[in-house]
Structure formats: structure tokens, C-alpha cells
Amino acid sequence: MVATTVHLLRHGEVHNPEGLLYGRLPGYRLSERGLRMAELVAATLAGEQGAPRRDVVVVTSSPLQRAQETAAPLAAAFGVPVGTDDRLIEADNHFQGMTFGVGDGSLRHPGHWPYLRNPFRPSWGEPYAEQVDRMLAAVDAARVAARGHEAVLVSHQLPIWVTRLALENRRLWHDPRRRQCALASLTTLRFEDDVLVGVGYGEPAASLLPGASPVAGA
To answer: What InterPro entries does this protein map onto (predicted)?
Structure first.
């Protein structure tokens, strides 16, 4: 059997002083802390932090700026180009560009309330099942391209998390506060030929998480 590993890397912290749900909006770059997170992930996978050097031959990113910036030091560390795959993009969300809360946030406006009618789909954005389908297609493409080696796909919290839930045969609707998908974390999928044999999780930038912005893209 041929062993192949596909890592799903969440981007680093984003410069977002207004605390908006930025979703797919353009122009949201990494913060200084986020850039350090990306560099630390690259150094860790390249074997510069005491762990063995990983066999990364493919680095592919969501088209959004924060993901591309997270991918850049990783691609440089392994001497490969950054590919772009639109299937890795953030989930679409009705509330992008807004703050999300009851006080001064978007939830104080009754016009937004109908978008909350079905949390299981969810009604406020791209259905969970559709996110899983596109993410798994990107994973399959990366697995084929990196056959016998390792690939890193840089994406976003929600698409990564629902993909993991699906692969672990768990329900897709969930409490967002309980997602195990921190900034610059790695959700690792291990394959033998085309069969998934293991799912792992790690936080190579854990030292930079205290004090990081908790606001997610969607």
C-alpha cells in the first residue's frame, strides 16, 4: 500500500480591528501575529523545531489573501509553488461584513432573524454538506498529486471542521464554540492508497494562540 498524508491547515490570525465576520470579503490579510504563526508552522513541518522534516511536495491554498499568506512560507520552506484551489475557500455567509451579536451586532435587526431559522443546514450560509463535498474533492485531488508523500491544503475553520466531522461520521451541525480547529492548526488525514486510515490534529503555533483574535471568517 502507498501511504499519503494530506494536512488541512487553517490560516493564521487575521488583521481585523473592527471584529467583523469577514467571510469571503477581499482585503483581509494576516496580522503580524498571523504572519509569525505561518512562519512557525512552516518551520515545524520543515524540521526546524525539533520534529522530523515532513515530506511535503504539494502546497495548495484557498484563493483568499489570508490563506495565500499562510501558505507562502510553507511553500518556500519546501521549494514548491503555491497552488490555488477555489474549493478550499471560506464558507459563504449572509452575515459577512457585519458584527454578529445581540447588542450592537447584526442580530439586533429583525430583518436578519429569518436567516437563523434552520441551524442544521445552516440557513445563514453555504450548507454544511456542500462544504464537505467541495473540500473532499480538493483533498482527493491533493492525495493523487502527492501520492506517496504529503500535501498541505490551506483553508478556513468551518470548512475544515465540517470535513473532519464528516470523515469521522459525526453530525455536521454543531456548537461553533466546540470546534477543534485553532488558528494555524493542522488537521491531518492519513491514507493508505485511497482509503482513509487515520485523522490527527495538532497546533504547531500553540505558543502564539494566547491573546489571538477569536473572530472567525464565518
So the answer is: His_Pase_superF_clade-1, His_PPase_superfam, PGM_Phosphatase
74/41 Cα distance (integer angstroms): 7
Contact (Cβ atoms closer than 8 angstroms) between residue 9 and residue 188: no
- How is residue 131 annotated by DSSP? H
> Does the domain at residues 3-208 carry the CATH identifier 3.40.920.10?
no
pTM: 0.91
Q: Rounded to whole angstroms, how far apart are CA atoms 54 and 43?
A: 10
For the chain, the structural domain boundaries read: 3-208
Q: Tens digits of per-residue pLDDT, 133-152?
A: 999 999 999 999 999 999 99
Give 61-78 pLDDT, tens digit per residue.
999 999 999 999 999 999
